[in-house]
Amino acid sequence: MGRNIRKRRSPLTVKVIAASAAVALGGGGLLYAQMNASAHESNNSAQNYTKAAAASAVATISCPDVGQKLTNVPANAKQGVATELANLDKQITEAYARLASTRQAQANDANFVQNAIVGPLKEKRAATINRIRLDITRVGGTFDNSLSQLAACTTQSANQTTAGQGNNNGGQNNNGGQNNGQASAAPSASASASAPANIGGQAGNGPVAADFVDITKVAPNVLSKPAKTGQASTGTFTTRCGTNQNKNHNTDNVIVAPGVTNGAHHLHDYVGNQKVNAFATNDSMLAAPSSCQNQSDLSSYYWPVVRVQDGSQDFDQNADGGGKEGNVGKILTPVQAQIKYVGSPASKVVAMPQFLRIITGDAKTTTNGLANANAHWSCTGFENKVQLTTQYPICPQGSNVVRTFAFQSCWDGVNIDSANHRTHVAFADAASGVCGNGFKAIPQLTMRLVYKITPPTLQADGTVKNAYAVDGFPEQLHKPSTDHDDFISITKNNLAAKIANCINTGRKCQ
Fold first, then answer.
1. 119-158 as b/e, with b when 16 or more CB fall inside 10 Å?
2. Which letter does DSSP use for residue 223 in this model?
């Protein structure tokens, strides 16, 4: 575990107004309340709060992640369970939308959130979890009845969502091992004081000033890589698949929500396989074209888009997964997208199996915590010194924003997926690079995405000018730690074996 440095913010007594005014996002957009009015302004339709009350104002809804608790779903129940898990996500996004559009009612009635939002949500979730139980048991599977206790949701205040991101104890570092921590530099005092009361962002659901840091003020936090043994696989294989300049987007996620339109509730960039959506099958993907130069690489590489919140809108401003769910602003295409497979410092690798699915990171860290976080944000010129998980970097002049991913590099040797999409793969030990529990080392997929972004600036009123953020579920408030990446291995002409052989023999191939 590396350093985790946070500067204390001076306590200030601040008053804020929970404004009843909301901003309409396009003709069909949801209404998101803006809570950043000055304490010194008069507002007849708003109620004044002390700092303590503002800090406890409900910012988002936190629900236990049922999908992460499922460890064994029979094959005949998988589609039904996936559909119901997607229903749980939809219920949360709808509840969050109601939360965001009823700020005045919440100000007038302390019990409004519980009675009108959280209570009904629990009832819907209980019914959905029961349907998951029936899907599993009717085909002879076993259902853990303790999962029924996950129906109830809680609320998080604005200061909880900020403070909760500060301790970075469970993520993964840029080597694919335990996280090296995060050094955090506080914004200005006025920004710090305003942040808890301001859910922020162009859509009112983030990011906020505390989500950004001047990277030049962050102490180095990158750990050294494990030492290579005599059995190390030292080669690399680079596949060139473009940057999604052809704008291949959708808000589906065929891994976690097959057959469900808008299962991700946020927009993805796709490179590699060009026919991936909620209804794609192994056969249809195997027959699809690829954006990769090596046409034997039909793998699907997809990630949530990054947007700059400069007041502009994009094509999906009135669409599900876009502006209707709080993902607003101009979509940025990476100026570079490097996809490279690397080896293990401790052993040779075996070829990836056809149709292996891997998700790295967690799209729900705001409410799940950082146990599965694997976000890495940095700037060109700083990548070997600073990697951030819980803040977006403000890069100096001439430096670009960089997102990197190092996927799980250990495979159970049997399954191409698992019920929670995690337990069939794992990270190698951070210190030794060795795969545990009988897992086999596979080529480690690494990705590096570079974006040209005008540096955000923190304003005196605590807002952020020219903020940028990764797309996400609306209730996750666009926190940087929610960044994640998805991959389906699809190859032909024996490419998977060629990649493994190249890496095992120490060559640089493409």
1. eebbebbeebbeebbebbeeeebebeeebeebbebebbbb
2. P
62-79 in b/e form (b: 16+ CB < 10 A) is bbbbbbbebeebbeebbe
- Count other C-beta atoms under 10 Å from residue 112's C-beta: 18
CA atoms within 13 A on the CB side of 380: 13
Rounded-to-integer distance, Cα 56 and Cα 58, Å: 6
Interval 449-474: pLDDT, tens: 999 999 999 988 878 999 999 999 99
Strands (E), 385-483: 392-394, 401-406, 410-411, 425-426, 440-441, 444-451, 457-458, 464-465, 467-470
How far is it, in rounded angstroms, from Cα 363 to Cα 450? 20
pLDDT score, position 56: 54
Between 280 and 28, residue with greater pLDDT: 280
pTM > 0.90: no
E strand or H helix that includes residue 508: strand 508-509
Asked whether the predicted pLDDT for residue 263 surpasses 80, the reply is yes
β-partners of residue 47 are 18
- Alpha-carbon distance of 227 to 62, in angstroms, equals 41
Give pLDDT, residue 40: 29
